[in-house]
Design goal:
Pdz3 Domain; Thrombin, subunit H; 10 helices; about 500 residues; alpha+beta; about 30% strand; seven-stranded antiparallel β-sheet
Length: about 500
């Protein structure tokens, strides 16, 4: 009996040894394929999401260049003074600027304070911040991490459209400065670090990633924001967004937040834009933007098809300013700009930004699409008049009339029609007297009183001209007709209307 028990125990020991040997062999095989052992964590998404091991050394190196901006604005003789309007861009309700505005008190003269951030770009005392941080201030002070406080002796310049300001202080010793990096090279997913003064607490560091680039948040005409989830809040406005190389890649300017605090959607002006603006402010005390002298509109699928362009994108020229740079270069209404000074124009809003950033007086090469062919022209950029105002469109009330062609009632220009629709004397073409709201043209916002100047690059003055051109387009198997329209005031734009069979 005892012998049988011992025999069973021996068999069990052999089975355990065999299982251990199989487990060891399997573990060795796993090590060969994964390169890991039981003593180390496997590489994978869990490791990748942990971020940089530490930014302590980098933060210590950079914090001395990041400053707190405090301002004071004096209101005299007002007992029940309303709160000052929130300034800066953008202005929508769900956007918040980052200004801390402490409570006001006292009688008679009242002093309103605000807090923001900024950073030193030159040891001699030049500091960058947002314009809305210092807008309307009577006194501006710069507070450094070592406790030094300096009064701003000069607002070197401001750019309201980009929301930037360049300040100057007079330090007793050289300041710690930080360089601009190339925001064009930073990629979505790269780690970034924000340093600023959230809620007036003092220098604070947060880390996140770059969430997106080229964001348009309707803050201004040249929007191209970087988006980040690095926590930025009130008081961070004007502070720097750093790459992991310690270079400034953006200036924190706006957030989306229903609460006023960070929800992980913050926006920064790209450093490439900031560096250019700052250079001009230092040199001229103002921003000098380039001007081409055109009015443009989007090239959608319908317009691209109507002119035979094999792809969408670019900027369609709706009008050309007489004697402007574009007119002098030979650019015409109907041209589609595809490339400006070596940069592809992939969307409408890209061209104004590229032109604005071009040095005044520079001769640039412009590649465009005209009547089914690619052409290259050269233009010398002039300076944009920042006071330029776009004329308002006049509206007219009209009476029904005539027969429909493609949903449009058309008539040659007459004195009666010019008077009825208040059409400028300089405009000549085919007058739209009525629009069938159920037609394709009715869906394209064409309205009575508009004047058709061209149909796919051919001038028209009579309904017969219009019908002939449409027949030609059908023979060419075009699906749309590209109409060049002028409103009563002379503003022009293109509309692609599907050709009905």
């Amino acid at each position: 009996m005892i012998g049988d028990v011992r025999k069973v125990q021996a068999q069990r020991r052999r089975k355990r040894i065999k299982s251990i040997a199989q487990f060891a062999a399997l573990s060795a095989l796993l090590i060969i394929f994964t390169g890991t052992t039981n003593n180390s964590a496997p590489a994978g998404p869990e490791t990748a999401t942990r971020g940089p091991a530490s930014v302590a050394d980098l933060a210590a190196q950079l914090q001395g260049a990041v400053v707190n901006i405090s301002t004071e604005q004096i209101f005299k003789g007002v007992q029940n003074m309303p709160a000052p309007p929130q300034q800066g861009a953008p202005s929508e309700d769900f956007f918040e600027d980052f200004l801390d505005r402490p409570q006001r008190g006292g009688d008679g003269a009242k002093r309103v304070s605000s807090l923001g951030s900024g950073f030193v770009i030159d040891p001699k005392g030049y500091i960058v911040t947002n314009n809305h941080v210092i807008e309307g201030a009577d006194d501006i002070y710069v507070n450094f991490t070592d406790g030094t406080k300096l009064k701003v002796v000069e607002v070197v310049g401001k750019d309201i459209k980009i929301d930037l300001a360049l300040l100057r202080v007079e330090p007793k010793k050289p300041l710690t400065a930080v360089p601009f990096g190339d925001s064009g090279r930073i990629r979505v997913g790269d780690w970034v670090m924000a340093i600023g003064n959230p809620f007036g607490l003092g220098g604070s560091v947060t880390v996140g990633i770059l969430s997106a680039t080229r964001r348009d948040i309707n803050a201004g005409p040249y929007d191209e924001f970087l988006q980040t989830d690095a926590a930025i809040n009130r008081g961070n406005s004007g502070g720097p967004l750093f790459s992991m190389n310690g270079e400034v890649v953006g200036v924190n300017t706006a957030i989306i937040s229903p609460t006023g605090g960070s929800i992980g959607i913050g926006f920064a002006v790209p450093s490439n834009t900031v560096a250019q603006v700052v250079a001009q402010l230092r040199k001229y005390g103002e921003t000098r933007r380039g001007w081409l002298g055109v009015r443009i509109q989007t090239v959608g699928d319908d317009i691209a098809e109507s002119v035979g362009l094999p792809l969408t994108g670019g900027a369609l020229i709706a009008s050309v300013t007489p004697e402007g740079p574009a007119a002098k270069a030979g650019i015409k209404v109907g041209d589609i700009i595809l490339n400006f000074d070596g940069l592809d124009v992939t969307e409408l809003r890209g061209l104004p930004r590229i032109v604005a950033q071009t040095e005044v007086g520079k001769q640039v090469e412009i590649k465009l699409w005209r009547e089914g062919e690619r052409k290259t022209l050269k233009a010398r950029i002039e300076r944009l008049d920042e006071g330029e105002v776009v004329p308002k469109v006049k509206k007219s009330e009209v009476k029904p009339n005539a027969q429909y062609v493609m949903g449009l009632a058309l008539s040659p220009m007459t004195d009666e029609l010019r008077s009825r629709f208040d059409i400028d004397k300089s405009i000549n073409g085919l007058v739209v007297t009525e629009v069938d709201p159920a037609s394709e043209a009715g869906d394209k916002s064409i309205k009575p009183g508009d004047v058709i100047l061209e149909v796919t690059n051919e001038k028209v003055v009579t309904p017969q001209d219009f019908a002939k051109r449409v027949r030609q387009l059908k023979e060419l198997k075009r699906k749309t007709a590209l109409l060049l329209l002028a409103d009563a005031g002379g503003s022009m734009n293109f509309v692609a209307v599907p050709i009905t069979k």
